[in-house]
Amino acid sequence: MSFDLASRLAERRAAHLFRQRPLLQSPQSPLVWVDGCQLLAFCSNDYLGLASHPEVIRALQQGAEQWGVGGGASHLVIGHSTPHHELEEALAEFTGRPRALLFSTGYMANLAAVTALVGQGDTVLEDRINHASLLDAGLLSGARFSRYLHNDAASLGSRLEKATGNTLVVTDGVFSMDGDLADLPALCAQARSRDAWVMVDDAHGFGPLGANGGGIVEHFGLGADDVQVLVGTLGKAFGTAGAFVAGSEELIETLIQFSRPYIYTTSQPPALACATLKSLELLRTEHWRREHLDKLIARFRQGAAEIGLQLMESPTPIQPILIGDSARALQLSELLKARGLLVGAIRPPTVPAGSARLRVTLSAAHSETQLEQLLEALAECWPLLPAEAAHG
Ligand SMILES: *Cc1c(COP(=O)(O)O)cnc(C)c1O
């Protein structure tokens, strides 16, 4: 008996699913150096252009001067410092929830929230294309786990009828690989009629969506009675790192007391919380970033439709071009790269089989000229893509 890793890797290569990490040799920005080439990138989640903002960098530097580098210990021991606490208070105020709790990553925040709320005898219902961290959290919880059809309140309703124990409905706010919005008004109404709670992971909605960047709940005007558990991540539009869960006093205290992914880990560096306090201020107040981004989104959709590309129902900076076949998605990505553009091909298992795509993401840091460069390159490359094989 042995671990036959070589043939697992060979199979993955043969299926055009082998993944390679591009080596980034410059800071986050529309223009990047990757593997020795300068490229115009449309694949970062830095939607508002805050990851390399001079004031955010300065806040991190000053935070390190004042608070040192390491968090030192877990929050419950001696790792919960003043910047963490101030950031939690600012995030609670920002989300209009009584309290917020800071985590080092979104993956951990999701594991923490789901596993603290449901267990054996309970039920967790998730959108079938939820982020992997939400699906993993559901499985880890030990609750009855079922996935409903994408964004389908009727499909959720039929599962709610069979639910037992405490029932948690879990959805992405903005779906990370499709860019569409969860139909929260309909999903929350279904949940309420069955006394289920709703948890929304709005990793991609905070920043771009809502009048003040408050994400999908601000967009739809939903309060803590509709969405009891609200998760945001800080590594995307906030441009820093970490995540938070916002909700009632009792929810947050429950996570502090019972949530293993919260209790048994070192706090994030306090200087990072200083940086996020600054980026939160910029995200809320610099409305021009959202306005410029909305203009870029509208222009991209119009230009892409003229080329004949298949877009998805997305009003967000995530604008996937649906290709289908993994090999063809890679080919289009390579053709663009040869013209100086970086757009990632997203393949199964990140997306369902047969739905490989180029995941174009737009940022407030892109200029209109850079967007035109992308559209011109797509217009050139799209006709060069070989036709799909009959059984590709
Ligand atoms: C990125 C992402 C996460 C994970 O957040 P990290 O802070 O990167 O661990 C969770 N949920 C969704 C929907 C995401 O897109």
Describe this structure as you would to a colleague.
With 392 residues, this protein is of the alpha/beta class. The chain folds into 2 domains: 24-48 and 287-384, Alpha-Beta Complex (Aspartate Aminotransferase, domain 1), CATH 3.90.1150; 54-285, 3-Layer(aba) Sandwich (Aspartate Aminotransferase, domain 2), CATH 3.40.640.10. The chain is 43% helix and 16% strand. The protein contains 15 helices and 13 strands. It has helices at 5-14, 54-67, 75-79, 82-95, 106-117, 132-141, 153-161, 184-193, 215-220, 249-258, 260-263, 270-285, 287-307, 326-338, 368-381; strands at 31-34, 37-41, 99-103, 123-127, 144-148, 167-172, 197-201, 229-233, 243-247, 318-324, 341-342, 344-346, 356-361. The strands form 3 sheets. The chain has a 7-stranded mixed β-sheet with strand order 3-9-8-7-6-4-5, sandwiched between helices. Strands 1-2-11 form a 3-stranded mixed β-sheet. It has a 3-stranded antiparallel β-sheet with strand order 10-13-12, covered by helices on one side. Strand 1 (31-34) and strand 2 (37-41) form a beta hairpin. Helix 7 (153-161) packs parallel to helix 8 (184-193) and helix 13 (287-307) runs parallel beside helix 15. The longest helix has 21 residues, at 287-307. The radius of gyration is 21 Å and the shape is globular. Pyridoxal-5'-phosphate binds next to helix 5.
